[in-house]
Design goal:
The chain is of the alpha+beta class. It is built from four helices and six strands.
Length: 182
């Protein structure tokens, strides 16, 4: 049986703190259908992806290629979906988020010309710990002779653009988890 109650104490402080950080709230209070001595309050504050301004966070991430070959830059966030929640269970705060998105990128390679494509991040969660699954696509108008450089600095997860995007995502994770600490 579910029942709702107004909050007080630490749960109220969590909600107040989330408002102070500009988070849109969706408050859920749930008591398990167990004896009252074992009931656990759960407070969830949910934010929408637009609240976090994720577009601005990921747009304009840059990576300078070696030997003056050019600068790879993310230009647009597409198909951004997901949510974020701060949940308190048994006096322990958990920070959850789950996003998916596509990032358009471009580079004007020296002696080759303009190249563009997308990187798709189908599952960005705290569990990824900086190792994000990424799908790489190159626009069909990209010159074939650019493929080697793009494979090395856009597709590669250990050098070039992807480590810069991972750095920004980890920065988001750190800032998000700093919104309230026990």
């Amino acid at each position: 049986m579910e029942q709702g109650r107004y909050l007080g104490g630490a749960q109220h402080d969590l909600v107040g703190e989330s408002k102070a950080h500009g988070l849109s709230e969706h408050l859920v209070l749930f008591f398990n259908a167990v004896p009252s001595s074992q009931q656990v309050a759960v407070v969830t504050t949910t934010t929408t992806t637009t609240t976090w301004h994720t577009d601005e966070l990921l747009q304009g991430v840059r990576c300078t290629l070696p030997e003056g070959m050019g600068v790879v830059e993310t230009t647009k966030v597409k198909d951004l979906e997901g949510d974020a929640q701060i949940t308190m269970i048994r006096q322990k705060t958990k920070y959850l988020f789950d996003f998916s998105f596509k990032l358009a990128w471009k580079v004007d390679l020296r002696d080759v010309g303009p190249c563009k494509g997308t990187l798709t991040y189908p599952d960005v969660t705290p569990d990824c710990e900086g190792d994000y699954e990424t799908l790489y696509e190159v626009d069909r108008d990209t010159p074939p002779r650019a493929r080697g450089v793009l494979e090395a600095f856009v597709r590669n997860s250990t050098q070039g653009l992807q480590p810069e995007i991972s750095r920004v995502l980890e920065q988001f994770k750190a800032e998000y988890m700093a919104t309230k600490k026990d």
